[in-house]
Amino acid sequence: MSKCSMHLNFLLVLLFCCVSPASFDLLVENPVAGLVACSPRQIQALTQFKNEFDTRGCNHSDNSNGVWCDNSTGAITKLQLSDCLSGTLKPNSSLFSLHHLRYLNLSENNFSSSSLPTEFSNLKKLEVLSLSSNGFLGQVPSSFSNLNKLSVLSLSKNDLTGRFPLVWNLTKLVLLDLSDNHFSGPLNPKSALFELHQLRDLFLSNNNFSSSLSSEFGKLSNLEVLYLPSNGFSGQFPPTISNLTKLKVLRLSNNHLSGTLAPNSGLFELHELRFLMLDYNNFSSSLPSEFGNLNNLEFLYLTFNLFSGQIPPTISNLTSLVILFLAENELTGSFPLVWSLSKLSMLDLSDNHFTGTLNPNSGLFELQDLRYLNLGYNNFSSKLPSEFGNLTILEVLSLESNSFTGEIICNRSSLFGLVISYNNFTGQVPPCLSNIPFVILRENNLEGSLPDNFYVDASVQTLDVGRNQLVGQLPKSLINCSSLRVLVVDHNSIKDTFPFRLKALPNLQVFILRSNDFYGSISPPDQGPLGFPELRILEISDNNFTGSLPTNYFLNWKASLPTTNEDEGGLYMAYNKTAYAPIFYTYTDVLDLQYKGISMEQEKILTFYAAIDFSGNKLEGQIPESIGLLKALIALNLSNNTFTGHIPLSLANLTELESLDLSSNQLSGTIPNGLGSLSFLAYINVSHNQLKGEIPQGTQFSGQAESSFEGNAGLCGLPLKERCIGSNVSPTQQPKDEDEEGEVLSWKAAAIGYGAGMLFGLTIAQVIASFKPEWLTKIIGPYKLRNH
């Protein structure tokens, strides 16, 4: 199984402090002298500038936008128009006639397809220039070096290219932000960067700079923030980094730094450091005891490296630590002594090789501010100490993939997530599940029935108790869990009929009953559609369900429209919770998926993955033509039943289908030619039926294994060895009686009548995504450090 990934993104918010106007007018409040009119000529130039663009999307209620004028001359000295303008910024723009501008903020506009005009150099009095998030293309003009009064220059989040820009004359710069562009090449010792001796904040993240870290960085002795993640920097720390004695924030995440962190590297002389982030590199050494010298550190993030050995005892010197992340390394030994880390709020030691017990003498249970604890994927053993009850504000506890034993402790109301899968816990499932939004108890040795005490509007959103030894029935009180999105009870011995009552759950999207002792019909008593309102993954394979499916069974299946917008939920099924300002958690659901004939353990669920798996039951009768209404179905498995009749022609409507398994039934007739038009269909298995005729030819069929068609005495053509002769039925000649044809047409009409919003409307390009349950912790502090 693949590893769990824990990411912590420290966002650094860069704010230009200024007085906001009361409204967007040409007469605005002067910070000193009250209302002052701008001169008519300046008003005219500004009006002309605005008229050069489409301003219909301008947010006039945004009080940060406005114009400021000098109270004696009437000249415009400050202009902020963010998220307002759309069009091309041309070299002859009226903007460049506003020669008295000292502050110009045009961030978050839409100047796409525009290059940066050289005419910015006309604005020689500029002290602050922010052009971030505009879509500017090309290189930074050399004329920018004429703006020698600049103290702040932000060109972040554009599409700028080339080497590090010429900034030789910008000796007054205190903040330079070139992050999130396409700058490339080395930062060689002769770069203009190293002449900016007044620089305090430097942001070069998410570019393509590549070189070792130059010793010339030591010249920038006023630096307080050095932010270089997601580039191609390599090698080790230059000793001259020790000159950066004012440095408070150092982030070099996601580069190619390697070697050892030597005690004399200079890093450990940066006594003002508060935030140190070296994650996603290739450092390979033991953790130097000199880390204890950095006694102002609040955040230490060394995840995803190759650090080995034990955590040095000097870590206890870091008494200001709030966040300690050492996950995904090769660390060994027992749980570290953390008595003195009384401010610690988040501790992640997951994916290492720690062993032994959680000894109360370690100080862990004295950390009264601890909210997040991840010890997953280690070799810890023994029962959970009762002292866990001392951690009264703990919100996330992840202990998965260890060897913990005994009964589960979860008697605190603060828990947001309890992930203790893949251990050796025993006893009953605890009755506290209603209170916890995310509960993953998978693959332990739990016994008995699920507690039937879910109260109205219970908090639980994800409940996974798969691969245990549970018996009894599904609790009837689950109907109270209106927030429930994912319910997984696979590989137990639960004996019950299909729980139609759960159709009332308004948010249930994933429902997995695989490999239990469920029995009886899966058709509603009124023989109508199944009709879960939001369901998009239904897996009931390897049970004892019987009976046939009514013709309208798949009518009215509804699901959210596909989205990949991060603001609308992102690529994977994930849920957020604000822990306490400014921290929030995101939990990403994972499942064991049966897909394309392959069993995949603990894959993240794409938000637009839709699947049906009814395999391994005793279902009979015809496959309803209404299956063709599920237009965006990705995976369909009806194998190992006793379905009869023809393969539904309506399957050709499932244009997003990637995996189709109808094997080991009693299907007859020919394989519909329409399946050959399903361009995403990568896996098809119709073996061991009573099919006949020629296998349709085309990319979707020619790439399949011979075993996908074997066990059908009447089939011929590639990839089978049997050649077709004249008496064989062509797939285009499949007989259709009038009733069947009428049924297909009626379902097309039904689809039109109900509209796309009522269908199984989810699409996917790929479902493979390996990682374990993922907790993403974001910390928004006084700075904005972008995600690498």
TrEMBL record:
The keyword Zinc does not apply. It is found in: Cell membrane. InterPro entries: Leu-rich_rpt (IPR001611), Leu-rich_rpt_typical-subtyp (IPR003591), LRR_dom_sf (IPR032675), LRR_R13L4/SHOC2-like (IPR055414), RLP23-like (IPR046956). Its main location: membrane. It is a single-pass type I membrane protein. Pfam families: LRR_1, LRR_14. Belongs to the RLP family. This is Disease resistance R13L4/SHOC-2-like LRR domain-containing protein. The lineage of its organism: Eukaryota, Viridiplantae, Streptophyta, Embryophyta, Tracheophyta.
